[in-house]
Amino acid sequence: KAGLKKRTAPFTEPGSLTRIVAVASGKGGVGKSSLTVNLACAMAADGLRVGIIDADVHGFSVPGLMGITQAPTRVDELILPPVAHGVKVISIGMFVDGNQPVVWRGPMLHRALEQFLTDVHFGDLDVLLLDLPPGTGDIAISVSQLLPGSGLLVVTTPQSAAAEVAERAGAVAKQTGQEVLGVVENMSWMDLPDGGRMEPFGSGGGELLAARLSKTLGVDVGLLGRIPLDPRLREGGDSGRPVVLAAPESAVSLEIRRIARTL
Ligand code: ADP
């Protein structure tokens, strides 16, 4: 992006110019991981240096969504993250056996995240995205402690019940002092072949969440965008080529690319 200055300090330090965006949700299945990888690919396509830390330890899915099968390489004490679609990616999933469940508890997760931040050689980054686990767990607190400059992006569906659980994930910022960058509503509607539009999850969740977080946090939290349902988004995840790259001119991709430029 024009005018972006080079980083002057590692992103764990206060002087860092790396934009750190932690993507949060109240519950699973709302599209948090899909949004994370698509935002990252959109930013990389815009010429930014982008990294992702998949911190969704119990449901890590970023390597699959990015089409990464290779393991990180080690050089002395450093871990070199695999690169896909121009994005550097590290995930707990790269350090466990196949589909084994991750049974680590809080302190171990904190140490794993700490190690990702210190031992993984990301180099200079313009943006670091973190895919947080759903809810308000230990990792969200660890992120705020290890990366106090990180901002939260909260994802919800239009369903009011979903927006209510997402509010708790966003309200964590009140305790951690993190900035809430905004709300993204996903699965907002579906365009039908006959030209009509369907709203399978209802409407208004994104606006409701933004209004409630604004009230709780006492600052203006905006609804940054509304992303439609599109089977191509799911297919992009299944094939490891995110929809913003596979179908860049689709409505879903145009909206994600627009949101990426506001962050
Ligand atoms: P989360 O990270 O919140 O658990 P995922 O990103 O894994 O959610 O998405 C859950 C499922 O919904 C995935 O199968 C994904 O492909 C699908 N999905 C998410 N957003 C959309 C969308 N806008 N259109 C179509 N499918 C979507």
From TrEMBL:
It comes from the Bacteria. Keywords: ATP-binding, Hydrolase, Iron, Iron-sulfur, Metal-binding, Nucleotide-binding. The keyword Nucleotide-binding applies. GO terms for molecular function: ATP binding. ATP binds at G26, K27, G28, G29, V30, G31, K32, S33. Transmembrane segments: none annotated. Binds and transfers iron-sulfur (Fe-S) clusters to target apoproteins. Can hydrolyze ATP. Homodimer. Belongs to the Mrp/NBP35 ATP-binding proteins family. This is Iron-sulfur cluster carrier protein. It comes from Arthrobacter halodurans.
